[in-house]
């Protein structure tokens, strides 16, 4: 269990995270409306560490590029 | 005073709005296309949102004496004026003011997709909710208390399943009822700590007489920082209210340490959570599927395997699309293996082969009917008009099959997986995984490839693709390249063919990165998509998605191809003194070719016949060889090429030129219609021409540098006395770029 704020891009697969901040303005509203707003939680299903990260957001799988995830700060709730 | 806001610069959709106007909204992958097409039964016209490339499908239905016009809006997660699609949806709802909003909610995952319905209900007072994928939900033990949820939301909710054919009639009945009972109340979500700020802003807007949309909704949007609403309110002269909202946002940040937009999203999702707790039951069942990666997903996500799997699947799509339509590449493989008769049979039995026979038959019939008419008239009608119509129709099966296969991939859930797998290699050259299929299809024909590029997410990336797609050599170019390679002969010919493809793709990558740099795009193209569950595609839905694309192609591209064909006929059959000629050399095109020939001399091409063939190739690349045959009088294209006596280097340079030079007329027409911009089409043509010239000239010069400079005239078979002074500039530029001195190069440009 750890509560340090880290970048979503660095969280390994099968971890549960709480979104702390979405830094990218151009995708901010889209991520919020997808259910990834600060305070919401998601499960990292897969992270290749280079290009793709897959999240379980309220029961749906969402793939996002790592460069997008770099701008998302999270708390790791469960290291899986 | 009654104040009603409008989106600035809105010019409206160019479609009739007779009847009850229904806006169809939903998340991506909610099953919107399937339900929309099931309601309108494929009767769809495509309208584009003014000033954008975003398309809105419009369908009409008559039901129980009422006429409905359905507007299928792009799939979005919300509308906060950020992305292009969100802006279109928000602008549509605000300015078109539909009579009823039909919002689709995925019954397998109400926890997420109900959020959009709440957003619509906060704006619109007449909302019908369709619960989609009921068949899947039942299979997983998901049960929805429709009546309870309906009461809680004060909206009609209709369960639907396209697989079971359930709910279509009920949706229409609900819409008919809703259209007669306008004037209900919009939904009011409790935004907790934001309520005092919302009340203050609302009261201010009420004082100023704002009636539409509701002052509370405008206040929510101002607090979120919605740029469209901020602009609209400012234009009403209420800049002070916008300023007050900005200050309120800062205050919320300071007081609660939270972004008001995040607090608003949280409140909506909390309400969704409460509603699902009360009205949705998930019964334990053996069939229930957990949210996890399947074996197929892991294939598309594996760093080493995914590019190969995606490439293989994209190749399969390519094989399927073009084998059915043209016989290619099966025919080429058979030809190379020595089975020429079988290759010819496959070609003649392909859809385009059969269509070609039909067009030839019609041409022959019309020609026979015009036996007494002047020769020029017969030629104009048969070659110019019927040839032009034939060029449009010839590509119809190709566009249809390509659209259908992409629709199958979309509907089955395979397309997002291929995009994920291809994202890794493609993003290194400035494209996202979304471009994998368009690039693959362009290898067969640029026209359907460009049409399938509609699926590319980013606006900039899409425009860039339209500008560069013509650099991808299509099958018609391959035929010409193979003819030229056979003139060179042997291993050198084969290597020249390979080099032409390598140069094309290298230039595609380099120009993509260069355009990004010039455009100030610093970040890599982003990928953000849902991975829907895989399922079997539904045939009729695939048809309903594909057919409008074909109609759109015929309507838009056809209006450019036909006049273009007539212009090409004039170029090749009318003399500069305006009389008819059968001799291409005496035509305007012949004269133009002779005038342009000096431009091609540095490439070693000093024959007007070759330039004439290149001009004909602008109409359709397939015409290159036939124009050469007409110009030289030799019926064998390979012999005609040999007769011109071009050197090996000149032939290789010509191959690179042909692989890259201007897209054909149909491609230009499609770039124009897809991008809604003549400028983008012009840039595409100029980029292709310039790249072709620079790349082929570079080959000539590199070849010259590798031997002695004095041998240049012999090597390239041209007669200039010394190498042109500035012709080394492009080579140096390319070398600099390849040495990773891009910054310096871009500054220089």
Structure description:
The complex is a heterodimer of chains A (80) and B (749). Helices cover 18% and strands 46% of the residues of chain A. Chain A has helices spanning 25-34, 66-69; strands at 5-7, 15-22, 41-47, 52-57, 60-65, 72-78. Chain B has 749 residues and is α/β, with parallel strands linked by helices. Chain B contains 35 helices and twelve strands. In chain B, the strands form three sheets. A seven-stranded mixed β-sheet of chain B has the order 3-4-5-2-6-7-9, with helices on both faces. A two-stranded parallel ribbon of chain B has the order 1-10. In chain B, strands 8-11 form a two-stranded antiparallel sheet. In chain B, strand 6, helix 3 and strand 7 form a beta-alpha-beta unit. Chains A and B meet through helix 1, strand 4 and strand 5 of A and helix 3, helix 11, helix 19 and strand 12 of B.
Helix content of chain B: 55-70%
Overall strand count of chain A: 6
Shape of chain A: globular
What fraction strand of chain B?
A: 5-15%
The assembly state of the depicted protein chains is heterodimer
Strand segment count of chain B: 12
Radius of gyration of chain A (Å): 11 Å
Q: In angstroms, what is the radius of gyration of chain B?
A: 30 Å
Major sheet strand order of chain B: 3-4-5-2-6-7-9
Summarize the biggest pleated sheet of chain A.
Answer: 6 strands, antiparallel
> What is the overall shape of chain B?
elongated
- Uncertain regions spanning at least 5 consecutive residues of chain B: 1-11, 708-749
What proportion of the residues of chain A form beta strands (DSSP E)? over 45%
Overall mean pLDDT of chain B stands at 81
Strand order of the largest sheet of chain A: 1-6-2-3-4-5
* Structural class computed from helices and strand pairing of chain A: alpha+beta
Distance between the termini of chain B: 56 Å
How would you state the average pLDDT of chain A, rounded?
86
